[in-house]
DNA sequence: GAGCACTGC
């Protein structure tokens, strides 16, 4: 059955291996006692889920252990069922106590809450509720099951350090190891020492279960009966997936993916295909190649192929196409970025082709910013991708590498904490009472170089003092805002420049990427360029964004969607910017910062420098920019308004994007004397003169 | 001449 060029691995259906391993471990830790309480009032449908037979087991484990790590595949129903079991078993009987469940994504929090509310036949926000930014639906008196995003729980910890509102916290999808979940786990370990009654359920899908158990296990003796954390596993309802490898390493995975699609298409029975590549360019290229190679060609099953791209920046109407079932006589080939690994699920996929690569954020301590780098995926990630083939029936996964090389891949993707800019996380930890972040028990310690760089930045911004303590009020106020510290500094210094309203607007706009729609080439492309030019100002991108935002607000009376369309602006993006803007204004008011309108563009630019001064660059005689500190060569990003204008001598930027070159994004033209005045502690006059 | 995916009182 296997397509040519692929070797069948030794009896290696990928699903059972984690499970077997973990089951053995769980058995070692404890003797299971099943109590036989009859489960009353449960819908028959719920009882059919694979998790149901382990219901009593889970409840038993929770009585024995403070922390229970549950390893289960998607489709086991753990995210919807466990909270209900807990309520049924009386874990929320105490007045006002709840079960809290964290999710890494907003959609997960809302859709899970909706499903559980439906199963419980209750209106949303009563017994079952959710809380995500800008949208919450729960009742302090009635809600017993609350789904939320991870960030929300971190915020709640700032006001309720022992999480007294909760009797059980369930952390879902912990294997994704977001920065927020690592903060939560580190703090949770401290909370558990103080609150013996609190229980934590950790749901994870991969091999890091043992690592997490050891992290939480408070038992330092050899006597396993004293363990406080244990693992149990739940089988899912996924079908088996047969895995194939290449005989020879492949030099070009896009090309190899195309060939694999074509071979598979000719030989294998009907069923849709999902191809994993790393970025938009590769996806578009692959789709083009597939279309070229297969015009009018039918497979032996009489099928034609229907290639579709899928990535985050694709217009929503095009994204929706991948969810449509294949037309009769067609085999759907979805060519996607990592978006299809966890964020979206496409039904009907039977074949997965995995390039083995992904673009990941990596912090660069030299430039002080995150860069996107094409990286080999981990084995765990590869399993997750393969699993996408087994959702409706047994599937196949073709890995575009040799099996030997696959075995050499890291088991897990490094947690976000070890890869990305830590300044926001460090500021949050300080606000959560962790004065010495170097000694904080991170589930996985970040590189100390990165930690030091973030402390240095926070110090330069004035958020922490000589002792590393949060300054009052600046550092404390900054930690409350869900934005990068350079931006929150900018916001709080806006009082001095009497332009808080405009700075809030600029920051809100910076949170939305690609506010300008770029139609694919031709006449529309030209019109879009003309429209964009209407908003552009020579001072740079920040003031251009302010211009767009202000003009948008003025249009409000009229048909705003049409206006956005005519000006090639994303209506949804602007709508969200407006929401963010209002939230920032509310926060400012809470701190008694007056909301001041300003039309003094120089003052606004000075205020921008007061936060972005660490990201300053000058025009070098070599014809490109250089960072003032470190002398790293930089270019203007093609989306910047400065790209087509005469290159100014001095700029500050918000972000860097690494591709072939390092590009500055969202730039403002500055006067170098502002750096001397606004950041004398950071730049010495001599450095600036040398650069000039 | 260029954009993995998320998130946040």
From TrEMBL:
Keyword ATP-binding found: yes
UniProt KW keywords: ATP-binding, Helicase, Hydrolase, Nucleotide-binding
Record's GO cellular component terms: catalytic step 2 spliceosome
Matching Pfam families: DEAD (PF00270), HA2_C (PF21010), Helicase_C (PF00271), OB_NTP_bind (PF07717), WHD_HA2 (PF04408)
Catalysis performed (reactions): ATP + H2O = ADP + phosphate + H(+)
GO molecular function, one term: RNA binding
Hydrolase among keywords: yes
SMART domains per the UniProt record, alphabetical: DEXDc, HA2, HELICc
Enzyme Commission number, as recorded: 3.6.4.13
Limits of the Helicase ATP-binding domain: 59-225
Residue ranges of domain Helicase C-terminal in the record: 256-433
Cited Gene3D superfamilies: 1.20.120.1080, P-loop containing nucleotide triphosphate hydrolases
PANTHER family per UniProt: ATP-DEPENDENT RNA HELICASE, ATP-DEPENDENT RNA HELICASE DHX35-RELATED
Family that this chain belongs to: Belongs to the DEAD box helicase family. DEAH subfamily.
Protein name (database record): RNA helicase
Biological source species: Tigriopus californicus (Marine copepod)
């Amino acid at each position: 059955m296997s397509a040519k060029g692929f070797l069948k691995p030794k009896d290696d259906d990928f699903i059972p291996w984690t499970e077997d391993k973990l089951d053995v471990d769980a058995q070692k830790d404890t003797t299971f006692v099943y109590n036989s309480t009859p489960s009353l009032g449960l819908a028959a449908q719920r009882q059919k889920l694979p998790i149901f037979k382990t219901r009593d087991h889970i409840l038993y484990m929770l009585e024995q252990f403070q922390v229970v790590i549950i390893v289960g595949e998607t489709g086991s129903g753990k995210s919807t069922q466990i909270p209900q079991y807990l309520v049924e078993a009386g874990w929320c009987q105490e007045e006002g106590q709840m079960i809290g469940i964290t999710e890494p994504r907003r959609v997960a929090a809302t859709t899970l809450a909706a499903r559980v509310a439906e199963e419980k036949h209750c209106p949303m926000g009563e017994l079952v509720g959710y809380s995500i930014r800008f949208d919450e639906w729960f009742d302090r008196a009635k809600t017993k099951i609350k789904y939320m995003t991870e960030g929300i729980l971190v915020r709640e910890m700032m006001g309720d350090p022992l999480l007294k509102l909760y009797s059980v916290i369930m952390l879902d999808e912990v294997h994704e190891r977001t920065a927020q979940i690592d903060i939560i786990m580190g703090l949770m370990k401290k909370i558990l020492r103080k609150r013996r009654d609190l229980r934590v359920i950790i749901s994870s899908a991969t091999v890091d279960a043992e690592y997490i158990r050891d992290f939480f296990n408070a038992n330092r003796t050899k006597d396993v009966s004293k363990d406080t954390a244990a693992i149990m596993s739940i089988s899912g309802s996924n079908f088996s997936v047969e895995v194939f490898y290449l005989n020879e390493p492949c030099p070009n995975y896009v090309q190899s993916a195309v060939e694999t699609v074509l071979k598979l298409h000719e030989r294998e029975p009907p069923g849709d295909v999902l191809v994993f590549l790393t970025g938009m360019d590769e996806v578009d290229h692959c789709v083009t190649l597939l279309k070229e190679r297969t015009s009018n060609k039918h497979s032996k099953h009489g099928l034609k192929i229907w290639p579709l791209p899928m990535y985050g920046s694709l217009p929503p109407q095009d994204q929706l196409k991948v969810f449509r079932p294949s037309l009769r006589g067609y085999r759907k080939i979805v060519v996607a970025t990592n978006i299809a690994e966890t964020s979206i699920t496409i039904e009907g996929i039977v074949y997965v082709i995995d390039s083995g690569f992904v673009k990941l954020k990596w912090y660069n301590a030299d430039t002080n910013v995150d860069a996107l780098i094409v990286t080999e995926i981990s084995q765990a990630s590869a399993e997750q991708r393969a699993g996408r083939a087994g959702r409706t029936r047994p599937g196949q996964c073709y890995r575009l590498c040799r099996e030997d090389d696959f075995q050499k891949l890291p088991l897990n993707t490094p947690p976000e904490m070890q890869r990305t800019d830590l300044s926001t996380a460090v500021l949050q930890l300080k606000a959560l009472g962790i004065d010495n972040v170097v000694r904080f028990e991170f589930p996985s310690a970040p590189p100390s170089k990165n930690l030091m760089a973030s402390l240095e930045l926070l110090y330069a911004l004035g958020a922490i003092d000589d002792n590393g303590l949060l300054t009052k009020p600046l550092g404390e106020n900054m930690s409350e805002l869900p934005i990068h510290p350079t931006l929150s500094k900018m916001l709080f210094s806006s009082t001095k420049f009497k332009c808080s309203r405009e700075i809030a607007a600029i920051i809100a706009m910076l949170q939305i990427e690609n506010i300008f729609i770029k139609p694919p080439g031709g006449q529309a492309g030209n019109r879009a360029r003309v429209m964009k030019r209407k908003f552009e100002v020579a001072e740079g991108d920040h003031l251009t964004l302010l211009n767009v935002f202000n003009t948008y607000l003025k249009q409000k009376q009229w048909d705003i969607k049409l206006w956005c369309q005519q000006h090639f602006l994303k209506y949804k993006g602007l709508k969200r910017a407006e929401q963010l803007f209002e939230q920032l204004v509310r926060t400012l008011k809470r701190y008694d910062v007056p909301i001041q309108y300003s039309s003094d563009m120089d003052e606004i630019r000075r205020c921008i420098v007061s936060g972005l001064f660490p990201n300053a660059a000058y025009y070098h005689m070599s014809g490109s920019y250089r960072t003032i500190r470190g002398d790293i060569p930089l270019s203007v990003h093609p989306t910047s308004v400065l790209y087509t204008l005469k290159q100014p001598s001095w700029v500050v930027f918000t972000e860097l994007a690494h591709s072939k070159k390092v590009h500055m994004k969202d730039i403002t033209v500055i006067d170098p004397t502002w750096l001397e005045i606004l950041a004398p502690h950071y730049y010495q006059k001599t450095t600036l003169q040398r650069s000039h």
